[in-house]
Design brief:
The chain has helices at 21-31, 37-53, 62-82. The protein is mostly helical.
Length: 84
């Protein structure tokens, strides 16, 4: 018997969400303290501006920031679950 999926991802940009979900996710992680503001605010703004002006896309550096954000969030969640 197959178990139900534990995670589903959707691209919600400018549909259910007003704006870009990649940018919003990084901002959320910055606000929650998962990502260091001094390091990631400027990067998030840079990549978002490149996305808006059409000079960045999935084949460029944007996924690198998103991947780092997710990796740090997962690592932070694991750290807190390992230590009561």
């Amino acid at each position: 018997m197959n178990a139900a999926p534990k995670l589903a991802l959707f691209d919600l940009d400018n549909t259910l969400l007003d704006g870009d979900s990649d940018y919003a996710w990084a901002q959320f992680l910055i606000e929650e303290g998962v990502l260091h503001p001094a390091e990631y605010n400027a990067k998030n703004e840079y990549f978002y501006e490149r996305y808006k002006d059409g000079t960045a896309g999935p084949d460029r550096a944007t996924p690198t920031l998103a991947a780092r954000c997710v990796a740090r969030a997962v690592h932070a969640a694991q750290d807190t679950s390992d230590h009561p």
